[in-house]
Specification:
10 helices, 20% strand, 287 residues, alpha/beta, binds NADP nicotinamide-adenine-dinucleotide phosphate, 6-stranded mixed beta sheet
Length: 287
């Protein structure tokens, strides 16, 4: 692919630490080129102490905007001029849009995941069960609640911060009129009951990710049937043990690649006002 840099080429980028392993520069630079947009996307390794100065460079360099990844998604919030309702509710920003020096924070992680779930046939009047309460789960739970999903059953192991997590989810529930409850992942009876009532089941834990590929958040797959859409946010490996077992039970399965693709597509659209050509980008991500 030919990339032409001119004196007017605009810049977008990623602020993260580490930033070097990211696939985002390949995704966005290919999308800019495919759409004939004179822009490039670069990764910047930014330490937490340098974050405030890095945010200022978005204005100084008149960048289109940036993505944020670990460890900046929460820490960046005080430096922005405005937050989208979803970013405020989630309590994290993964995309900054530079509107002539006015920096607006968005969160496209939940949007990206929910779009991929709807594509698999999930309907808002159905219920979903999600395992995990980390950053990715939080974005999905908040977006699903904003979308008006009928019921969101959340399961997590019961650590010392379980009460804090319960309160956090209650706050999302109150602010969205959603129906959300947190349960102990060790309560297998409740887990099977909620899976049976749900149209979708999501693994938003790190269990099953390379190199720990023999781990799964489930031991009992008896409530997984062909009626269920089963998703893993993990995309390395492409099929986790959790997804393999679900597929063998006849479920429709989906790994985390679509979420990765669509969160990028939403950011691209926010920066350029144009739709990302996802079918051009999908092979890049799959490779
Ligand atoms: P995170 O904030 O660290 O959260 C990890 C979650 O996994 C927490 O709920 C944690 O429970 C749970 N967990 C970890 N070890 C566990 C164990 N041994 N037993 C039970 N639960 C366990 O991570 P994250 O950023 O939300 O990411 C979660 C997953 O999503 C990762 O695999 C990540 O690669 C993937 N992800 C994918 C995309 C995408 O675009 N596809 C985007 C973001 C993330 P505790 O709270 O009890 O520790």
């Amino acid at each position: 692919m030919e990339i032409n840099i001119s004196g007017k080429t605009k810049l977008a980028g990623l602020f993260a630490q580490p930033a070097g392993h990211s696939i985002s520069p390949a995704i966005h630079t290919a999308a800019f080129a495919a759409m004939g947009i004179d822009a490039v996307y670069l990764s910047f390794d930014i330490s937490p102490e340098k974050l405030a100065e890095a945010v200022e460079t978005i204005r100084i360099f008149q960048m289109l905007g940036v993505n944020l990844s670990y460890p900046h998604k929460k820490a960046v919030m005080p430096y922005l001029d405005e937050l989208s309702p979803a970013a405020e509710l989630i309590g994290a920003v993964n995309t900054i849009v530079n509107q002539a020096g006015h920096l607006v924070g968005y969160n496209t992680d939940g949007l990206g995941f929910m779009k991929s779930l709807y594509e698999k046939g999930f309907k808002k009047n159905q219920r979903l069960t999600i395992i995990g309460t980390g950053g990715a789960a939080n974005a999905i739970i908040a977006q699903a609640a904003l979308d008006g999903v009928a019921e969101i059953a959340v399961f997590n192991r019961k650590g010392t911060d379980f009460q804090q997590k319960t309160e956090r989810l209650r706050e999302i529930q109150q602010r969205t009129d959603g129906k959300i409850a947190l349960y102990d992942l060790a309560d297998i009876k409740k887990l099977n009951e909620k899976i049976s009532e749900s149209a979708a089941l999501i693994n938003a834990t790190t269990l099953g990710m390379t190199p720990e590929i023999n781990r799964s958040p489930l031991n009992d797959y008896s409530s997984i049937t062909s009626e269920l859409i089963v998703c893993d946010l993990i995309y390395q490996p492409r099929e986790t043990l959790f997804l393999k077992e679900a597929r063998q039970n006849g479920a429709t399965t989906m790994n985390g690649l679509n979420m990765l693709l669509y969160q990028a597509a939403f950011a691209f659209e926010l920066w350029t006002g144009q739709e990302m050509p996802v079918e051009v980008i999908r092979p890049i991500i799959e490779k």
